[in-house]
Amino acid sequence: DGFSALKLFSQGYSYTYDDVIFLPHYIDFPTDAVSLSTRLSRNVSLSIPCVASPMDTVSEAHMAAAMAALGGIAIVHSNCTSSQQASIVRSAKSLRLPIAPSSIVFASPDDSLPSVSHGKYVFVTESGELPSKLLGYVATSDCENLKGKEVKIFDYMRDCKSVEYVPWNYDLGKIEAILEEKKSDFVVLERDGEVVNVVIKEDVERLKGYPKLGAGTVGSDGEWMVGAAIGTRESDKERLEHLVKAGANVVVLDSSQGNSIYQIEMIKYIKKSYPQLDVIGGNVVTISQAQNLIQAGVDGLRVGMGSGSICTTQEVCAVGRGQATAVYKVSSIAAQHGVPVIADGGISNSGHIVKALVLGASTVMMGSFLAGSTEAPGAYEYKNGQRIKKYRGMGSLEAMAKGSDQRYLGDTAKLKIAQGVVGAVADKGSVLKFIPYTIQAVKQGFQDLGASSLPSAHELLRSGTLRLEVRTGAAQVEGGVHGLVSYEKKSF
Ligand code: XMP
Fold first, then answer.
1. Catalytic residue at 407?
2. pTM value?
3. pLDDT digits over 421-431, tens only?
4. Which amino acid positions bind IMP, per UniProt (predicted)?
5. CA separation (Å) from 210 to 67, 203, 429, 436?
6. How much is the ipTM here?
7. Which of 91, 228, 273, 391 has the greatest CB tally within 10 Å of its CB?
């Protein structure tokens, strides 16, 4: 009944996740017996197969800390100076308690109040970012009468005399006790004389309501593991040095077409200069692209071209591949060399994650799925009554204006061509809440397939025990909600 993956993916079609469906297999274990522990790359282990994309509307410090706390990892984007990127890595590693403050803002003393006054407090640091030295804070409730006026924050801030400082690695229980004892609304977390986070009472309550966190992804330094993206220019060698000093645990060569002489030379350089550091190459979608990078020495492969929600590469350049086919093909060769595969882009539900993992990937990399969360960079806005956050492609004109065009090897071109768009996604709440639910749904999918782990799923697929079919357009409609006048889309 159905087809083996080998047969289904050898017929000349480029299939997306939605095109294919698994036939159910045999269940002989409970959902909780499913383990999704995996590897990001040869030497980096994760307890959940989730990776945050190196995009400037997805992965900065709070996302990186939260993903690591969940047992996944984030790759910090490189659309900023190397010292800013290194500072994001350092900051992520210092966010032991992975709380992204929901109603406070950080600003520099030169900022004007109206431009940052959304939220309950404005914390003023020397650099306007974290980590940095705390200069004071503004309670926005004090400034009601200043609404609309352009005043410097510096002139209105309270000093730090009454501020409660606690060490950066205090856990939730200790922070809660201090807030209670001092009758304070917030505490400032400090490391080496710099503020690394501010935790307010309502965020402590919020975190307590989320599923319990496990040990998380911790490196040999005892801190969160954090990945970082770089390019393949000469200047990226210096960037890498900064990142390694800041504690980056793995590096991703960020390119839409990774099978290039530039990337191969960079892989060789990194493997020679930093033998302890895992390097992930890509992106690739074919067996021969993958073979080249494996030969150059990569520790992981990132798969996907044009499958991302904000991507226009396939339309602009006529190059790419359906993501289900790409993941299956690249994984089949990578597995022979022990190189883990990251299925990058095109994930919009837990079923897509099941498909990516069973088709051979070891992890999924997500942009839009994580954008719009409390942990994603940027402030929420309102559009037609909906709370939204910006989400943009790194190949959009807006992102490339900040330097990300090297991802498309366009740094020598005089005319810039967009390969992505700028958009927005709905508020999704905290990743600390919705990722555990998503993982539970993925485990149920594995159970339906009789696979209790990633290696067992891969073996069932390789041996032809797992069977698949292509869904017709009508079958895809039938597989979604249909025939209702209205319904509420709520999964947990
Ligand atoms: P999702 O579907 O998770 O995709 O939102 C995220 C992935 O998309 C890639 N990416 C781009 N691809 N133009 C592209 O063709 C772009 O501007 C762009 N920005 C990001 C990237 O691989 C990311 O992980």
1. yes
2. 0.95
3. 999 999 999 99
4. 309, 344-346, 367-368, 391-395, 419
5. 14, 11, 11, 9
6. 0.98
7. 228
